[in-house]
Write a structure and sequence with these properties.
The protein has one domain: STM4215-like (2-Layer Sandwich). By secondary structure, it is α+β, with helices and mostly antiparallel strands. The chain has three helices and seven strands, in the order αβββααββββ. A hairpin with a 6-residue loop joins β4 and β5.
């Protein structure tokens, strides 16, 4: 028994644009797009829920992965009902290493182990000095102006989880923005 053919009059309507009002939600989406475009080797980009510490979530993560968090934001009044915010961004680069880097390993094996640092380099240069462009108020395309100050790298911390086979580097950045109600 065959299926009836689709009529040519049926149209697939485009989805209406999603308008995000939350500063952090928009910044998170912009960071995902930036990382995906600048570091295509990254296989998983998500909010940081502690995926390296909770066994239930870890199988869902594809490596190399970047987890995004905004661990702190400090606000001060600037008049006119506005506030100036200083934001911290933490990106956790996670790789499941499988190569040896000790001095007697063949150079090609050591280079494979050090690819982790190449990913870190690309990720750092994708974010440091970058400022996302605000979306259009109509929800279509970019609005043309940046909505935060360019990101500045402030520190990098190793936080390896050798017990579960993960190499982790935390990349910390800061930015600032103004907000008016």
């Amino acid at each position: 028994m065959g299926h009836a053919p689709l009529h040519k009059t049926h149209k697939i309507m485009p989805k209406p644009p999603i308008i995000i009002n939350s500063f952090f939600a928009q910044l998170y989406l912009d960071l995902q797009e930036r990382i995906k475009a600048a570091v295509p080797e990254i296989q998983w980009i998500e909010q940081d829920f502690g995926q390296d510490t909770y066994d239930k979530w870890r199988p869902n993560v594809a490596f190399p992965a970047v987890l995004i968090d905004f661990p702190s934001a400090n606000y001060e009044s600037i008049g006119g009902g506005g506030q100036w915010a200083d934001i911290e961004l933490k990106l956790r680069l996670m790789v499941a290493p499988f190569e040896q880097s000790f001095e007697d390993a063949p150079i090609e094996v050591r280079k494979g182990a050090l690819e982790f640092f190449e990913l870190e380099h690309k990720l750092t240069h994708a974010i440091h000095g970058w400022a996302p462009i605000a979306p259009s108020p109509q929800g279509e395309g970019a609005g043309g102006e940046v909505y935060v100050q360019p990101f500045i790298r402030t520190r990098i911390i190793s936080n390896n989880r050798n017990d579960i086979g993960l190499r982790i580097r935390e990349l910390h950045f800061t930015t600032s923005y103004q907000e008016y109600e």
